[in-house]
């Protein structure tokens, strides 16, 4: 039971990281990116082939690399690879495009990459996928299986904490303000000297990097990765988490991600058992998520915890505030 | 050489189905300005509608009709109960897009729960294969292509000659302007969704008949090809949609000669990206559509 | 300020057509530094298209636009804006879910302050520059009578307040030249005087202003010179009094409001 709770929570934390990725692109910058699972998968695969062993399971088993490097290199590789993918896809899809075209392009790209990864065996071993990925520091620590699970939970929580701190810094900084201005009205942002293509692309790459990081942790958790571990439809679970928790709010994101990944996922898994119908639980979960998205958008579009608002207080020192300037008189020539 | 002709023959049938579905999507997209992600599910429910009808009748026409009616009913309801109430609040357009994503999720999984996830065989009785020019088509292929032509001509006439078509075009240009000139935009939009669903439902039937089986993801797996065809042809451009469908359908089937069949999707994607890079307004448009 | 009579902006033979319709054709005029110029003309005269062309939001088919000695035609909007030529829009385009004060903070371009690196690792640096920017923003808000709503979401402001916010943002951006596209539209006429004051505040702070406007009384009260456009090109310019006597201007306005009104 404790093992179950620990692994559920670990997965929940990894989902929080996914959700932060989408909060950057959609929540702050207003880009309806439907490719987060593309970056999650890229991160997971790249992590697996950097940390994992070279393929050895007969002539039909293939994957690239298999470097068996320490997990930190796996995380870095995952981040870089996902970032590069984001740069390429975002670079194309954000170029002079209407925002609906952007969304269509990202979803089509995800499905295409899915098809290619699943079919093209030499890359990541097709449908069988990459397996035998060692857990981070498992040899060095030499813990019991349960104790290691707790350690891994702590590791994921530490990564989440770092992501959270960075996200808070972004949100409270002029940079985050700029992203939100682009979300609110990009034309006005351009009129005030902002290269909106660059701003959006940068935010998109941040999202891809964070998603890739989450993907690496997912692969570390699963110790393997294959096309059955991800699909484009799971993107909606992330969006549901953001809508429920509160778009743009870092705490809302945590709440929403844990709610969707722990409460909705696990409840449907535990309590929906229809004999002879193995897909029913998953199907019902997606239906619930669909209804949830519509309901939240209708009744509470800002989410449970709305985006925090800047509150400006003038400094207490009265000398710091200049008195209002008197109105100038009209120019004499009118 | 024979392989290529055979592939082109397949391509024509695929293109016919894509074209029918794309025209419906493109029409709805241009009038409502919402990329309908649940379009694939409209095809799916249409196909299952035909499946249910098949249990009580052998008449192909009745099966096709029930597919169209089921698709139309769902599209109508989707707009009436979900999209329209939201649209009245004038949210960002992407919010309406997200709604269609949610509807897609609900419909696809509802079908899965009701009918199960496995493939169900679906065949329509057809005459023997016939040679037409260099191509060999089954009677079923001919039926599909024939009805595609009928639907295209029908949509063309509808847009060009009827009041409804004129109103649609007016709304697609500017909904505000259309409203000012006394067009009941809500009603036209509602009817457009209905029309979209009718055609999509039929396309789902044609797809299931062509594939020979159906599953809850039959429409959704076809969706990205349809979006690609719509974008390649230029959103809201009916003839562009036809040309885009033809290009993508042929490219996919011919590519299958040289590449594993599962890469067909990648071919559609490559054409989509190429279009976005070269002419974002669509390959077959004379004036580039100004983005926004 | 440099020589006040110097030309700051010059359009020479600018052309733009949409699908065969000439929106702007052979358009040539110049704007003096430090002036408050009115740009008027009947509907469809090409005024708004001119604003779009000058600010880079639409591409020029032919002709040159020279701003402060530099050719700017067909350069992207953000580049033109950074050169010191800013525009407003017919509808106030406030950043709705940012506060009024934040709207001003974003209006002032500062690449260093807005970089991702500073956001993640430069908090000390940020604290100093952000405080300066906030103090400036507070001052500008007070100047435009928006001090009380500085923490309100900009989307919740009234139509008139949104217009004032527009002016405050421009003040904060400190451009050399600003194109105001119908600054009176959507504003309660009672507030006309307040708008006029705000525009004069911009001029007084050294910003050259070009104003596209339909309200001719408002233009007459504020602007000198006034340029009249019709059918995509300027047909006359001068003071409003001079323009009233110009037969070409009267012709252009036939069937519309005559400038006497």
Structural class call of chain A reads mainly alpha
Terminal CA distance of chain A reads 83 Å
Share in β-strands of chain B = under 5%
Helix coverage percent of chain A: 55-70%
Order of strands, widest sheet of chain B:
1-4
Gyration radius of chain A (Cα, Å) is 23 Å
Rough outline of chain A: globular
Q: Strand-and-helix sequence of chain B, N→C? A: HHHHEEEHHHHEHHH
What can be said about the biggest beta sheet of chain B?
Answer: 2 strands, antiparallel
Q: Overall mean pLDDT score of chain A? A: 86
- Outline the low-pLDDT stretches of chain A: 323-334
Low-pLDDT regions of chain B: 287-292
Radius of gyration of chain B: 19 Å
Question: Could you outline the blueprint of secondary structure elements for this entry?
Answer:
The complex is a heterotrimer of chains A (334), B (292) and C (261).
Chain A lengths: L1 H27 L7 H16 L19 H23 L5 H21 L1 H4 L5 E2 L6 H4 L3 H28 L1 H11 L1 H6 L4 H27 L1 E2 L9 H11 L4 H22 L8 H20 L35
Antiparallel strand pairs in A: 1-2
Helix pairs in contact in A: 1-7, 1-10, 1-11, 1-12, 2-3, 2-10, 3-10, 7-8, 11-12, 11-13, 12-13
Chain B lengths: L1 H31 L6 H16 L5 H29 L4 H23 L4 E2 L8 E3 L2 E3 L1 H23 L1 H11 L1 H6 L4 H27 L1 E2 L5 H14 L4 H21 L5 H15 L14
Antiparallel strand pairs in B: 1-4, 2-3
Helix pairs in contact in B: 1-5, 1-8, 1-9, 1-10, 2-3, 2-4, 2-8, 2-9, 3-4, 3-8, 5-6, 5-8, 6-8, 9-10, 9-11, 10-11
Chain C lengths: L6 E12 L2 E12 L3 E5 L6 H8 L7 E6 L2 E2 L5 H7 L1 E3 L12 H8 L8 H6 L1 H21 L15 H15 L3 E5 L10 H13 L3 E5 L3 H7 L3 E5 L2 E6 L1 H5 L2 H7 L8
Parallel strand pairs in C: 3-8, 3-9, 6-7, 7-8
Antiparallel strand pairs in C: 1-2, 1-4, 4-5, 9-10
């Amino acid at each position: 039971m404790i093992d179950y709770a620990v692994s559920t929570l670990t997965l929940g934390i990894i989902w929080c990281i996914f959700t932060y990725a989408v909060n950057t692109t959609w929540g702050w910058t207003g880009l309806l990116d439907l490719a987060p699972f593309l970056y999650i998968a890229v991160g997971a695969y790249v992590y697996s082939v950097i940390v994992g062993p070279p393929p050895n399971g007969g002539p039909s088993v293939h994957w690239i690399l298999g470097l068996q490097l320490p997990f930190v290199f796996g995380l870095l590789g995952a981040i870089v690879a996902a970032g590069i993918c984001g740069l390429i896809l975002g670079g194309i899809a954000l170029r002079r495009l209407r925002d609906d075209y952007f969304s269509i392009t990202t979803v089509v790209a995800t499905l295409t990459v899915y098809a290619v990864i699943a079919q093209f065996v030499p890359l990541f071993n097709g449908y069988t996928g990459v397996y035998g990925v060692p857990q981070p520091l498992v040899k060095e620590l030499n813990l019991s299986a349960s104790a290691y699970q707790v350690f891994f939970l702590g590791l994921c929580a530490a990564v989440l904490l770092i992501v959270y701190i960075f996200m808070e810094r972004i949100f409270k900084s002029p940079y985050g303000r700029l992203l939100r201005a682009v979300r609110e009205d990009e034309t006005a942002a351009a009129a005030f000297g902002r290269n909106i293509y660059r701003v959006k692309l940068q935010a998109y790459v941040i999202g891809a990097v964070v998603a890739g990081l989450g993907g690496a942790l997912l692969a570390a958790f699963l110790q393997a990765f294959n096309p059955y571990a991800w699909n484009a439809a799971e993107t909606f679970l992330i969006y549901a988490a953001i809508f429920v928790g509160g778009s743009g709010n870092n705490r809302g994101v945590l709440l929403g991600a844990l709610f969707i990944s722990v409460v909705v996922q696990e409840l449907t898994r535990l309590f929906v058992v229809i004999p002879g119908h193995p897909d029913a639980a998953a199907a019902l979960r997606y239906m619930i998520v669909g209804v949830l998205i519509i309901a939240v958008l209708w009744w509470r579009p800002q989410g449970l915890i709305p985006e925090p608002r800047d509150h400006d207080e003038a400094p207490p020192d009265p000398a710091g505030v200049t008195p209002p300037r008197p109105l100038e008189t009209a120019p004499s020539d009118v | 050489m024979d392989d290529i002709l055979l592939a082109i023959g397949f391509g024509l049938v695929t293109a016919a189905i894509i074209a029918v579905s794309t025209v419906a999507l493109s029409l709805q997209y241009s009038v409502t300005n919402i990329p309908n992600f649940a379009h694939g599910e409209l095809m799916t429910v249409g196909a299952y509608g035909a499946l249910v009808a098949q249990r009580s009748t052998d008449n192909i026409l009745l099966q096709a009709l029930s597919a169209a009616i089921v698709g139309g009913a769902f599209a109508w309801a989707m707009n009436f109960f979900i999209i329209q109430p939201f649209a009245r609040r004038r949210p960002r357009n992407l919010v309406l897009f997200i709604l269609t994503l949610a509807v897609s999720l609900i419909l696809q999984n509802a079908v899965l729960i009701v009918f199960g996830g496995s493939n169900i065989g679906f065949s329509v009785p057809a005459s023997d294969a016939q040679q037409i020019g260099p191509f060999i088509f089954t009677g079923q292929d001919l039926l599909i292509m024939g009805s595609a032509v009928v639907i295209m001509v029908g949509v063309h006439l509808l847009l060009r000659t009827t009041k409804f078509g004129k109103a649609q075009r007016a709304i697609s240009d500017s909904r505000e302007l259309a409203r000012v000139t006394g067009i009941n935009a809500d009603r036209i939009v509602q009817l457009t969704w209905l029309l979209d669903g009718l055609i999509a439902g039929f396309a789902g039937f044609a797809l299931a008949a062509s594939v020979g089986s159906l599953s809850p993801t039959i429409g959704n797996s076809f969706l990205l090809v349809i979006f690609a065809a719509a974008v390649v042809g230029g959103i809201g451009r009916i003839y562009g949609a036809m040309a885009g469908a033809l290009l993508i359908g042929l490219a996919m089937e011919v590519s299958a000669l040289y590449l594993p069949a599962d890469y067909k999707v990648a071919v559609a994607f490559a054409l989509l990206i190429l279009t976005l890079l070269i002419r974002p307004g669509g390959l077959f448009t004379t004036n580039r559509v100004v983005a926004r | 300020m440099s020589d006040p009579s110097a030309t700051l902006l010059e359009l020479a033979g600018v052309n733009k057509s949409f699908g065969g319709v000439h929106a702007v054709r052979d358009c040539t005029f110049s704007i003096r530094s430090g002036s408050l110029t009115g740009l008027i003309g009947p509907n469809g005269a090409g005024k708004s298209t001119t604003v779009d062309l000058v600010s880079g939001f639409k591409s020029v088919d032919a002709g040159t636009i020279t701003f402060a000695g530099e050719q700017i035609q067909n350069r992207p909007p953000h580049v033109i804006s950074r050169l010191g030529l800013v525009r407003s829009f017919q509808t106030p385009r406030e950043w709705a879910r940012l506060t009024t004060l934040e709207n001003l903070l974003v209006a002032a371009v500062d690449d260093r302050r807005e970089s991702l690196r500073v956001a993640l690792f430069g908090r000390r640096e940020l604290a100093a520059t952000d405080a300066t920017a906030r103090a400036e923003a507070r001052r500008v808000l007070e100047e435009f009578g928006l001090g009380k709503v500085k923490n309100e979401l900009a989307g919740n402001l009234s139509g008139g307040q949104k217009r004032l916010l527009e002016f405050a943002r421009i003040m904060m951006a400190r451009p050399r030249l600003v194109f105001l596209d119908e600054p009176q539209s959507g504003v309660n006429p009672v507030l006309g005087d307040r708008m006029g004051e705000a525009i004069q505040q911009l001029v007084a702070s050294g910003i050259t202003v070009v104003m596209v406007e339909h309200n001719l009384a408002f233009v007459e009260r504020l602007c000198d010179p006034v340029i009249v456009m019709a059918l995509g090109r300027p047909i006359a310019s001068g003071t409003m009094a001079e323009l009233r006597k110009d037969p070409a201007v009267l012709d252009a306005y036939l069937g519309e409001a005559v400038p006497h009104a």
